[in-house]
Amino acid sequence: MKKALKKILNTIDVPSDLNSIISIDHKREVSPESVGMTENGVNDIWQSVINLYKTGTQPAIELCLRRKGEIVLNRSIGHVRGNGPLDTPYTPKTIATPDTPICLFSASKAVTALLVHILAEDGSISLLDPVSYYCPEFAQNGKKNITIHQILSHRGGIPGIPPNTPIEVLWDNDEIWRLLCEAKPISVDGDHLAYHAITGGYVLERVIKTVTGKNIQQYLDEKIRKPMGMKYFTYGVEDKDLSTLAENYMTGPKLGFPISWVVKRALGADAETIGQVINDPRFQEAVIPAGNLAATAEEISRFFQMMNNGGEWSGKRICDPLTIKRSVQEYGSMQIDRTMMVPMRYSAGMMLGGNPVGIWGPMSGSAYGHIGLINKMCWVDEARDISCSMLTTGISFVGHHIPSLVMFVNSVGKNCSRIPNAKKVSAFA
């Protein structure tokens, strides 16, 4: 019976001795009391991660939580590879650590978005300019007036790649740019909110390259990665790092309609094809600005902490505080996203929380961040003075693990109480 259920749910074997697959960064974790938390509260958050792991949908989970700028939790549980749903007890296994890089998938959009906002801060572009002002070829088929800001806020009218596009095009940036230039938009006036899962990143990449003469990887290195001392934090990884990058696994039950339709509409491929692509070395080594930044949970938490600091990190000015506020300012009220078919609030690059409840939990009106393929969650909550990132390696769109994801977010909010008279005031709370 247990084996049959495991096959239906498409889950991993959860080891009986969880302590043997948990790694804790004792050197960097500070006392909870030093940042206004309790040991019981921190244990409650970590237990919520363990509970998610026990669902069998996540072969590995990394968590990094900063409170008042200090690391309270930097831990991992599970295996980088060797314990997928189809692996056997004899498959060689590698235990995950907090230093394991994991693909962020759509959480990459937050980083790409801030790069564009930094470009605007430099005076090189205006976010209200049409994309075609910098890249005239984009004007085809009525896209002449679609602005950079509309692309950032998922109102650019090109939410999906053209139907029947070969999956290999994802790592051929010139070819996908040609297809996007030729694409006919579903809207040109910014009134259609429709999540741009992959497309927007390629457009923003082309703007950066056209204006600066540098590719987006070079621009990321210059503006964020090197100044902040990141080891990974790159779009894709080099060939030498492929064995270090965590493997991703398709988990959870087989998708049926309408979820299968929503997934294909959003990502341009069915779940089976996505499962083949995510571990393809061509995808892992490519530059896909909206979908394949590789980082540790600590690194992406570091990035969001910099945003929470108003653009400053370790005495270095990464960007102006006003740039941060512009990047998180709500654009349009909460409404149904026509791609994902759920109500969402967006800024020009971020997924926003809400009051009395939002994507980042109850009373999260001062929170912003991004999810990656449903199960990766990275965000800042200014009112709680936290930067949190949970990276997972299971790709499960639906299933019994969803309540555990919700409980994790709620646990973070509950145990990191809102700080009265917080210095930081959200631009959209």
TrEMBL record:
Residue stretches spanning the membrane: none
Cited InterPro entries: Beta-lactam-related, Beta-lactam/transpept-like, Beta-lactamase/esterase
Occurrences of domain Beta-lactamase-related (ranges): 59-394
Entry protein name: Beta-lactamase family protein
Organism (species): Alkalimarinus alittae
